[in-house]
# Entry
Amino acid sequence: MQRKTRGIWLAAAVVLAGGLGAGASAAAVAKVAEQAMVEAVGPLLSADQATGGELADGVCMRQLRQCCCPGWTHYAIFDVLFLQRNNAVGDAPLVFNADSGLPVMTAQNLQPATATGVRTFYGALVTDSLGWEIGYTGIYGMFGSAAVSGPDNLELPPPLGLAVNNFNDAENVRGTYWSTLNIAEFNVFCLDCCQECGPDWCGLTRCRPNCHCVNWLAGFIWAGLDEQAGLDAVCCSPPEPSSYNVRTSTNYFGAQVGMRGRRDWCRWAVEGWWKTALCGTSASQAADPIVGSISGLERGPQAATASGVGFIGQLNGTLIYKITRRWGLRAGYNFYWLTNAAFAPAQWDFGTVAGSGTGINDNGTLFLHGANLGTEYRW
# Structure
């Protein structure tokens, strides 16, 4: 009851000060103050009656968050991602011109184009300062290809290129590279918010109240990188094709920590976060049989696995325009960094001795960067 009385006097004081500052009459101010107190205290009185005369702290905090910083207890975001991949798979030659002995295709030529993806998060506060969130990020369409042709003078690296008849004196060779990345995470966070006046140096924020929140978060993350690479060579007349196809998968499991900051004022908000995770990794690779149209089976199906330790880093900066009190439009920039990945092109082994193709290279580093566009809903 003591807190309820203080709330009534606070509401009355705010309205009274505003009315007198505007030069209104005492009767008008009293009438407005009475109406404001009814509206402000009504929900609290209902909660007071429902709890047998004692106002629960949870009810009080929910009422405050409807009008004060940060003004929400749940949030959901959905972003569409447009990311460019740094194709750090090395520059190993894949196809040579047999006449000149010079490489005409390398692994770096299989540079994927800009890939699209989605990111979605849902979070909620369980107390005034503690909350949780669950999120998913999927990056699809990381596809790259290269093709070369010549007058029966194309050759894959020896000795495999010499052992398989379709891999030497070829007319056309095409290389393809495809991969997807999926990330799922669950975090708990500690929320610290304050309301303050905007900085003077910016006309948009000068002397305007804004809500500034900082989240320290910790949680669990899983990421899966799945890739496939292929070399298709065609020789002879009639055309006889042969292929060297490899598939890889790298899974990350680990704990992550990070920080997220957000500042809201009027219809605008800025938000950014960083997250780092130290993960255990499980990588695998599998290669299809290699068969020549004349030389026959050169190598049967091969597979290998490995485990290790990897790192995942994420950075984001986003500008939000609030079209309503709850809905906002988002635009920003992102960085993703993963280490100890098994890239498919790095598994091509052109040896012919026993054991060739049975190893695994899981020392790759994946770097993605690009824009995000989306929406958010906070309530």
In short: Helices lie at 2-21, 26-50, 57-65, 160-163. Confidence is low (pLDDT under 50) at residues 1-30, 40-54.
